[in-house]
Amino acid sequence: xxxxxxxxxxxxxxxxxxxxxxxxxxxxxxNATGSTLVEWGxxxxxxAVTVEETVPRWMKEQKVGGGWLTAEYSMLPYSTxxxxxxxxxxxxxxxxxxxxxxxxxxxxxxxxDLEKIGERTLCVDCDVLQADGGTRTAAITGAFVALSLAxxxxxxxxxxxxxxxxxxxxxxxxxxxxxxxxxxxxxxxDAAAAVDMNLVMTSAGEFVEVxxxxxxxxxxxxxxxxxxxxxxxxxxxxxxAQQNALS
Length: 247
Prior knowledge:
247 residues; alpha+beta; Ribosomal Protein S5, domain 2; five-stranded mixed sheet; four-stranded antiparallel sheet; 6 helices; 32% helix; 28% strand; globular
């Protein structure tokens, strides 16, 4: 890891390789098949899964077997310091929300054998109650917990013959702040980061997605290696937290 002689103090006092506290409050949305409220530092996201007994029209037209999983992501108006208008008030989904919900969908589909869910659609909804950095990583990490709860309920109700879940998945942010690779950026760090990256990884150690960019600077191969090492260690902790929440 990169070492410096000068003292380094993060915005919230954490060590460079330390996650913010995380906890899951399950069954937060009684009408959903599975749901959880993920509290990750000061970020709060409700993740809920509902089931529709149909598949998208394109699957029928193309005669694609099995089921489908789709995701929607929204930041509620009061999730940020300044009110954020709802997308519906603008008449369209903004580019950021669209990109994030596609990311959530890709990440969670990587954990499911779609053939085993039958001709139905699993709808994953992620609603941000409070944003303090890492809303997309919290949404992915919480969505897997909500999906696991939903699948458990479907198996118990004999709506599924086999468990469709593959390897668990979680996501975390990493970045370079004051020339230091750090794990799990809060908003203040994210706004000041020279490099920002999001990692999505399964429990098998395989990446689903790596999103990284130099916000104000380039980054070296050694910094990339440091960030990947921090992210992989953080995701292992998140996977353990998921399993504790589900046990």
